[in-house]
Amino acid sequence: MKIVVTGGAGFIASHIIDYLLREGHQVLSLDNFTLGTRDHFKHHLNNPNFKFIEMDVSQEERVNQAFKEFKPECVFHMAANSDIGAGSFDAKVDLKNTFGTTVAVLEAMKKNDAKQIIFPSTSAIYGQTEGAIAENSGPLMPQSNYGAAKLAAEGFIFAFAHVNNIRVWIFRFPNVCGPRGTHGVFINFLRFLKADPTQITVAQDGKQAKPYIYVLDLVDAIMLGWQKSQNQYNVFNIGNAPLVSVNEILASLLKEKGLGEIKIHYTGNPAWPGDVVTYTFDDSKIRVLGYKPKFNSKEATDKTAYELVHNPDAYIAVYRD
Amino acid sequence: MKIVVTGGAGFIASHIIDYLLREGHQVLSLDNFTLGTRDHFKHHLNNPNFKFIEMDVSQEERVNQAFKEFKPECVFHMAANSDIGAGSFDAKVDLKNTFGTTVAVLEAMKKNDAKQIIFPSTSAIYGQTEGAIAENSGPLMPQSNYGAAKLAAEGFIFAFAHVNNIRVWIFRFPNVCGPRGTHGVFINFLRFLKADPTQITVAQDGKQAKPYIYVLDLVDAIMLGWQKSQNQYNVFNIGNAPLVSVNEILASLLKEKGLGEIKIHYTGNPAWPGDVVTYTFDDSKIRVLGYKPKFNSKEATDKTAYELVHNPDAYIAVYRD
Question: Which of A7, A65, A95, A216 is 20 to 30 Å apart from B133, CA to CA?
């Protein structure tokens, strides 16, 4: 199948490209290297089924031109701002990179008759919640521009899908870790520890806890939903147990680095305005399809800490700098 | 209080201005006459508490400048595309006039320390539903660009409010009728009947039915929620019984015009792609505050039909043309 993967140089999208090419699909990847890097797909540059065009996916005319030439049946629209903190003071980051790219992709799909879209959404569309959140839970009251832009994108995806007979798979992700991660708590901690291995600053009281998924488990979950669920609108929350706290992640990194006890300063404040510090997904809907991650949340974070410390080459250029 | 009303030349906003000035507030109205008309506020032009600036509210810099000079405490952000059909083929209409104006207003509020926003939302954010929809109902799967843009606007309102300590009142409207309506089923039918009083074309089978509210009842509901509910996020669905069908509205207009039986052609299709033809609100949350419309849905549509036929001067220039 001819598939466009936007944001193909990024963390999760590059693993999706690996999967799709392995399955024999033809992939056109679009990216402007805002967060991603060419290293993430350089192993495919000699593959005749792989094509890359450098572009800002919020530029409607360029996206449309690429679709016109490639004629995709399906789009994995992974281009987005994935750094929640970066958008917390300036709405333009999420407006352009998450929402603007989505509108451009939808217009190109409409004009060029692409009939399937896979979209990565997030727990952040719900805002502060109590209890486990399911796909049908309401209200949706995001408290970050990141969550608002993902919700806005979902809204237009549903509307375009209804009018243009497009099929939609939306996966609402938990926190994602593993190879090629470009930013986030692991990389922040390692940067701080490199600068000063005797002390570190941690948001809130460090007990804020979230579900984590290892990126390859996430890709398997996406492919499972895409292949096994064939309604017009297929929405899945992807959870993982147990919740892992920021303190536990720090402890894993300290252990792998052999650093023992260090001085920890707790800020008492969220890492960024609008961070939802704790949430739980009800993911029974995708579990019915057979979703069963190889690594639970704690194993995923421990594995990531181990790999980041002992095998940094498998990770991201940003961190190696 | 100093209050900005965006879209102040429009149908509902102009009634809000009447109310606010009557209560002694200072009002700055912004509008570019996309759907509204100067006739809707000309009776206030000599009122020292009323000021009007003609502008496109999606232009961030101009909105910011107006806020900087006027220093509002509160914004009734009523500027929006209110013609669902108009945006059904071109997403840009709702993207610019509903979503773009909201982002511009939020940025201006953030920069100029305005701490209250009242926003008109819609049943269309829910998409196709079963049973009565409450404020907390999910999922939110709009099927029109109109609904998607309102949902997108809600998302960014919540996020800006969280980070900038803004208080929010969101009212999800049913269909609205009454004086100064600029478009919709009543005006369409009257235009068709003027052109040919012997026959008319009706979408679907004409039995599609929605709740209607008389615009002055709606303004009372908004003011009730704004004054009596003082949480940070105040969200209300505004319903009205009974559901009134398109056939009933046509019958009311024919009766007022003394036309008797005419030939009716049913299209079998929605009036526009993405129209949600039937829905019901659970409005118990606002009823607890004392919401009790003077006119039920049927009385509201009958009264509108009567007034449009017998007192068109109270209505809109668009129709009088």
Answer: A95
- Put simply, the answer to whether A142 touches B151 (Cβ < 8 Å) is no
Name which of B275, B77, B98, B79 is nearest B185 in CA terms. B275
The Cα of B61 is separated from the nearest Cα of chain A by a number of Å equal to: 14
**pLDDT tens digits, one per residue of A2-35:** 999 999 999 999 999 999 999 999 999 999 999 8
Residue B118: what residue type?
A: I
Close Cβ partners of A102 (under 8 Å, ≥ 6 residues apart)? A77, A119, A152, A153, A156, A157
Mean pLDDT of B120-143: 95
Question: Minimal CA–CA distance to B166: which of B105, B120, B237, B236?
Answer: B105
Of B142, B158, B233, the CB nearest to A158: B142
Q: What is the ipTM of this complex?
A: 0.95
For the entire predicted model, the pTM comes to: 0.96
Q: Which residue of B has its CA nearest to A128?
A: B162
Residue A152 sits at the chain B interface (C-beta within 8 Å): yes
Q: What confidence tens digit (pLDDT) does each residue in B245-285 have?
A: 999 999 999 999 999 889 999 999 998 888 887 899 999 99
The phi, psi pair for A151, rounded to 5°, reads -65, -45
B138 vs A137: CB contact, 8 Å cut-off?
yes
- In this complex, is the C-beta atom of A274 within 8 Å of any C-beta atom belonging to chain B? yes
How many CB pairs below 8 A link A and B?
119
Q: Are B82 and B139 in contact (CB under 8 A)?
A: no
Write a three-state SS string for A41-60: CHHHCCCCCEEEEECCCCCH
Residue A223: its pLDDT value, please?
Answer: 98
Determine the 3-state secondary structure of A1 from DSSP. coil
Closest-CA distance of chain B to residue A26, Å: 30
Inform me whether the C-beta atom of residue B236 falls under 8 Å from chain A C-beta atoms.
Answer: no
Q: What is the average pLDDT across A248-268?
A: 95
Instruction: Say if strands A212-214 and B175-177 run parallel, antiparallel, or are unpaired.
Output: unpaired
CB B55 within 8 A of CB B62: yes
Smallest Cβ–Cβ distance between A163 and the set B137, B152, B274 belongs to B274
In chain A, what percentage of residues exceed pLDDT 90?
Answer: 88
Residue of B nearest to A133 (CA): B138
Q: Give the Cβ contact number of residue A3 at 10 Å.
A: 24
A41 interfacial to chain B (CB closer than 8 Å): no
Q: Nearest-CA distance from B192 to chain A in Å? A: 26
The candidate with the shortest Cα–Cα distance to A78, out of A176, A184, A162, is A176
Asked if A41 and A9 touch (Cβ cutoff 8 Å), the reply is yes
Q: Are A275 and A185 in contact (CB under 8 A)?
A: no
Residue B234: strand, helix, or coil: strand
The answer to whether B154 and B119 have CB atoms below 8 angstroms apart is yes
**Residue A91: which of B88, B143, B156 has the nearest Cβ?**
B156
